[in-house]
From TrEMBL:
It comes from Zoogloea oleivorans. This is HIT family protein. Residues 5-112 form the HIT domain. It comes from the Bacteria. Gene3D superfamilies: HIT-like. A motif (Histidine triad motif) lies at residues 97-101.
Amino acid sequence: MDDCVFCRIVRGELPASKVYEDEHTLAFLNIMAGSPGHTLVIAKPHRENIYTLEDELAEAVMRTTTRVAKAVRQAAGCEGVTLFQANEVAGGQTVFHFHLHVLPRTPGDSLPGVWPATAPTRTEMDEMAERLRAAL
């Protein structure tokens, strides 16, 4: 995509503080960082979201994310990382090129933790599990 900001970074048209690159993926620091070391891992070919990733590319992105998470933990001196990945507007996606956020975390930081939990019944969970198995 000609106007996609991440495609433009891959092509070298826009600057990025690169952390890692291979044939399928690119990792670089987020210009809108939640904390120092906040890194984005992207698929190099344009894929809008997780639904459009083929298995080989999904595997490559996860391999890179694992390597980057280990590096972020060491280099940022954090005590943990949060991985975040959003799809479609309703899911919170703002850049429509598949990417994962690797966020360094420390106890008491100002980043959001987890979402409010609900406790569905076993019947509700079993019914949803059945629907998910059918969709797979």
